[in-house]
Amino acid sequence: MPEGDTLFRIAAALRPYLVGRAVVAASARQPGPRADLLVGRTVTEVVAIGKNLVIRFDSGLELRTHLGMRGSWHRYRPGERWRRPPARARISLEVPGAVAVCFDAPTAEILETRAEAVHPALGRLGPDLLGPAFDAEEALRRLRAPDRADASIATALLDQRALAGIGNVYCDETLFLERVDPFATVAALSDATLQRLVGRARDLLWANRETVRRTTTPDAMATTGRRLWVYGRAGRPCRRCGTLLLARRHGDLPRRRTWCPRCQGPAPGGAEG
């Protein structure tokens, strides 16, 4: 699933072609949003909010998309052949000189910008790790919420209501770099540890916000193809200590966590390599 850095790049890529231009044509797969409401409206902003892309218009409306596991945004010249079948397009917007198409997204909706605060998804998001006004203290407060005390730290970091933008890659990499057991409960960790995790996750997302070649290792390692510490490397040697990395499906979805049992500690209840 695209994480906060990916959405940041998408917003940056679309912004120069959409902002300040009026929509001349729009369509959406049905059942879906009424794209006709956007025709004639001028794009005022294109922003990433956690894992959501939001396109705002001068009419007070905005288009929100969430890409899920398979969604993506493409940009084309008017009349250019799309690289994916039109049947897979969830919504498309044409402005003078450009066409923006969202493919395969599970979520595409139009709402009033003033309703963001009460929106069931946007209104509950925690501080955006790549947001210009990121509030680390608020992120810590949300992680410390009573209903998260018994949750694993991996589950808490992935909860977009606590802080927005972390997905599976940055969850695994952040926990490894800070030497924290993914399955430790939030209550078992100190405020200092939680603050380090939040800071590390933000640093990693920020460092990768402008590149598609996601990297969490030092440059000397990345140049030899060793770009990630643990994510996707179950059964291979830890790049730090040589111990074989373990993996385990965890949480309600469930998601696959990868960690080093020596650098971070063992998981309760067994694991799979």
Fold and architecture overview:
The chain is α+β, with helices and mostly antiparallel strands. It folds into two domains: 4-124, Alpha-Beta Barrel (N-terminal domain of MutM-like DNA repair proteins); 136-259, Helicase, Ruva Protein, domain 3 (Orthogonal Bundle), CATH 1.10.8.50. Helices cover 22% and strands 21% of the residues. It contains six helices and ten strands; from the N terminus they run H-E-E-E-E-E-E-E-E-H-H-H-H-H-E-E. The protein has helices at 4-18, 136-143, 153-158, 168-177, 191-207, 219-222; strands at residues 25-28, 43-49, 52-57, 61-66, 72-76, 89-95, 98-103, 107-112, 246-250, 255-259. The strands form three sheets. A four-stranded antiparallel beta sheet has the order 1-6-7-5, covered by helices on one side. A hairpin with a 2-residue loop joins strand 2 and strand 3 (52-57). The chain is globular. The two termini are 22 Å apart. The model is unreliable at 268-273 (pLDDT under 50).
